[in-house]
């Protein structure tokens, strides 16, 4: 399975996550923007993801809820700032358990001979916010979501 690369430079407010998927860019874009497919790959396997809102347009809002097996829930939400199919999505991202800590996320999809390099650049309001997210296990969650997305894309391609 393709690995997920994380760049977390000391003293900066950003995290850059890169992964190559064995699927055309258009397929990856459609998969990550389809509210019916998001529960199949977003978040850890141990939870159920519910797409509460997803208005995929500049100014549109999104909200995803993660539900654990014991019934506990936590949610994330944001606002879309730019949608450029099949190249780029820009949105805010906020964990509702820590309101006020909003980051700006830019997802870029690059065609690489029929495969897709997805680069997600997250810019936090402060280095402390960034370090808090990394310390909370963000790398594990992003890697697992990437693995699940790769598995889903393999079924869509076939």
Overview of this protein structure:
Pfam families: AHSA1. It comes from Candidatus Dormiibacter inghamiae. This is SRPBCC family protein. The chain is of the alpha+beta class. The chain has a single domain (5-151), classed as START domain (Alpha-D-Glucose-1,6-Bisphosphate, Chain A, domain 4), CATH 3.30.530.20. It has helices spanning 25-32, 127-135, 138-157, and strands at 5-7, 14-21, 47-54, 61-68, 73-84, 88-95, 102-112, 115-123. Strands 1-2-8-7-6-5-4-3 form an 8-stranded antiparallel beta sheet, covered by helices on one side. Helix 1 packs across helix 3 (138-157). The radius of gyration is 15 Å and the shape is globular. The two termini are 17 Å apart.
Keywords:
Alpha-D-Glucose-1,6-Bisphosphate, Chain A, domain 4; 8 strands; 3 helices
Question: TL;DR?
Answer:
This protein has 158 residues and is an alpha+beta fold. 23% of the residues lie in helices and 42% in strands. It has helices at residues 25-32, 127-135, 138-157; strands at 5-7, 14-21, 47-54, 61-68, 73-84, 88-95, 102-112, 115-123.
